[in-house]
Amino acid sequence: HDKPAGVVAITMADLRRRGKVHPTRMVLADAVGSKMPTVRATMKEKISDAYKEMDLSMETLPADDVDFDAEAYKAAIARMQKGDVVTIFTPDDTHFQIALECIKAGLHVLIAKPAVKTLEHCRALVQAAEEQGDVLVAVEYHKRFDPIYTDARDRIRGLGAFSFFNSTMTQPKAQLDTFRTWAGKSSDISYYLNSHHMDVHAWSVSHMARPKSVSAVAARGCAEARLQPTDGRTIEDTVTVISEWENDASVDAPGAVGTALYTASWVAPKADCHTQQYFHYMGFKGEIRADQAHRGYTGSTDENGFAALNPLYMKYTPNANGYFAGQNGYGYRSIEVFVDAAHAINTGATTVANVCAEGVLATIDSALYVTALLEAGRLSLDNEGCRVAIAYDDGSHPRRPTALKLQR
Q1: pTM over 0.85
Q2: What CA–CA distances, in Å, run from 11 to 20, 109, 182?
Q3: Exposed site from 1, 72, 153, 389, fewest CB < 10 Å?
């Protein structure tokens, strides 16, 4: 896999070492208890034994002798206290119910992208969070913490009305083997990878534009030949989602329309980095191009050959004293900033409304555009590429999409 020591467990262990996470209370819940001994052994090897003072003591659920328990997360919730932090990194189609239960229990929730699969579910989470009032719900879009992407977003705001956005994100075929059990069933490659750049785009322009329609096209054949599914499911190789955006009338030109193409694939060959990824943005007054895969930093070893290196995401190499030294990585920062925000809310130093207004974290209300784009793309693919209109019928929140309408 592309993350040698993972992201969540190693980050939580280091946050514990730094006094930001409870010294004794940590719970890891999965559905398959029988794999927990292997999970604990792997974390010990990759984290506890690899770095100094990384305490990963935790309770794991369900019990080791339980083959499958889809509701083990409920036992984990029962062990937590109001104001605790939950991270949800499970198959996409399980996010909604787990997140909803956590919100109702008064827990702050950080959900792996994409938040949920449907606009209806995303709106329900927004409503549940707003009804609770003091619960922070966000999506773990770590690209918001990449200094290049952060700077690009700030520059985009000075480039006038939105005109064009084009992003590509690809991973090698071996990734299909990692996700063979849910590929094309629990989710697809667009939900998995396009969601990243959809968020970057929406984060950059949502103050002045909103998506109005979507269509999608897909390539097929390679993934299905590799995985040979026997259950009749479709597994697209590459998905391109095409979206039309409308700018506010007050921005540069009344009725200005922009277009966006988001492409994601998991049938690429093995290359110099696990994920090839880049985008091109054009506004009325200028453009931005970003290649996140290549930072001018490369390395070669006898064992692994040539590679483009990116320690800006997760730095796994220990420092000279043997400690984990990846605190500045944007994968780490996206979790730390959420934990800090949750703590500030708990202590009264800030409010959920303030965190949402700051626009640093991808709070659940800001995930509505991405969810609408993803679901509309899936709806278009399932209906021979038909266009899908995005409706905005909430007068009190004119930028919040309310429904998708298939245009036949």
Answers
A1: yes
A2: 11, 16, 26
A3: 1
